[in-house]
From TrEMBL:
This is Histone methylation protein DOT1-like protein. InterPro entries: DOT1_dom (IPR025789), FAM173A/B (IPR026170), SAM-dependent_MTases_sf (IPR029063). It comes from Duganella aceris. SUPFAM superfamilies: S-adenosyl-L-methionine-dependent methyltransferases (SSF53335). It comes from the Bacteria.
Length: 371
């Protein structure tokens, strides 16, 4: 059931943050570390690798087929015809990967690659789900501060936090700093994001060492320390950061989360995956484990809603916190249903406006660069 306690007052924007000039006390170290992991949403998205060993070759093939229809005005009606049955799994208006800012590489299709007419609806549906999962987003600092304050009463010292779809690692590193987890683990499918998370962790650990070494009075491992959420800890919390944070490059469905006490899902782009994620987590998590989601509910009967935070409170979108409860054998399976279904007439009107805007932009660019 939803908590009946008095709702807390949440932050609505990041407070001004001056760079930390001197490390006078442990709170200065915390602040410098938090500042070092902000701004990941502004990173450059490199195109997917078009190499023989790329695991994304099947994705790129279908993406090229869709993009070819988008770029050819004579084939756009056919593109709409193929997309219309799958509106429930498209994030936004058109699939992100085929747009100019998407992650499909430039170049011609490889020999033997199929046109859209040769790609079945089942493959297209799966591609659209994967496309949504590649979209990147992250919470702002104030939203994470709100989130950690909200869940802190539910977190016992120890335990393991796992972020499925961890991106550049902001949530994982913030959780390791803020809450008394024994270990915080991020799982990310895209190799470039995984590598950026590892580099950001390397920088975080170097800054932590610098900050600890610069304190006027050394912070011993057993010295009492207060965490940002107000929970008691010791200096070991900062000294042992390297041992408590890990990043794994893998598909979230291939990583066993059996030992997790909290699974974090920034699931705003995972709508079509929620049923499958619910089933995975129900089978792997122990009774009592927590799962938090954004935007989309976790409808599997093995999970009980313990907190619901509407959009505009903890974060810009809804945030839900669930607890794993009850043996699977005694539960009625959840019904699979579309999470949302846009109005097809309104959707097509938006797409055609986008087509017009693309054509105008292309014409303007051609005029600028004409000899």
């Amino acid at each position: 059931m939803e908590s009946a306690s008095t709702p807390p007052i949440f932050r609505t924007a990041d407070r001004p943050a001056d760079p930390v000039a001197r490390f006078e006390q442990p709170s200065d170290v915390f602040e410098a570390l938090f500042q070092s992991i902000q701004g990941g949403e502004k990173h450059v998205r490199p195109p997917l690798a078009l190499t023989p060993d790329s695991p994304f070759l099947p994705f790129i093939e279908i993406g090229y087929a869709l993009r070819a229809c988008l770029r050819d005005p004579a084939r756009r009606d056919y593109l709409l015809q193929r997309l219309r049955p799958h509106l429930g799994v498209i994030i936004g208006t058109l699939p992100t990967s085929i747009l100019p800012h998407g992650m499909l590489p430039d170049g011609a299709p490889l020999p033997g690659w199929r046109a859209l007419e040769d790609i079945g609806d089942a493959e297209l549906h799966a591609w659209l789900i994967q496309d949504g999962g590649l979209i990147y987003g992250e919470m702002q600092r104030y939203e994470l501060d709100n989130y950690f304050d909200a869940i802190a009463p539910l977190i016992r010292p120890g335990g393991v936090m796992v972020d499925l779809g961890s991106g550049l690692g902001k949530v994982v590193m913030s959780a390791a700093l803020t809450l008394p987890f024994t270990r915080c683990i991020g799982v990310e499918l895209l190799g470039y994001r995984h590598r950026m998370a590892q580099e950001r962790l390397r920088q975080l650990l170097a800054l932590a060492q610098q900050g600890l070494a610069s304190l006027p009075a050394p912070l011993a491992p057993e010295t009492p320390l207060t965490l940002p959420v107000g929970a008691p800890a010791t200096g070991r919390h900062l000294h042992d950061l390297a041992a408590r944070i890990a990043f794994i490059e893998s598909d979230m469905f291939k990583v066993d989360v059996r030992g997790a006490s909290l699974v974090f899902l920034y699931s705003t782009c995972f709508g079509p995956l929620m049923d499958a994620l619910g089933e995975k987590l129900a089978r792997e998590l122990p009774v009592g484990a927590l799962v938090s989601t954004t935007t989309y509910a976790l409808k599997h009967p093995a999970f009980q809603l313990v907190h619901y935070f509407p959009a505009g409170t903890v974060a810009w979108t809804n945030v839900m916190v669930y607890q794993r409860s009850g043996p699977l054998a005694s539960l009625t399976p959840a019904e699979t249903a579309a999470l949302y279904q846009p109005d097809p007439v309104a959707w097509e009107a938006r797409v055609r406006r986008d087509f017009d805007a693309m054509d105008l932009a292309t014409k303007a660019a051609a005029t600028i660069y004409a000899p």
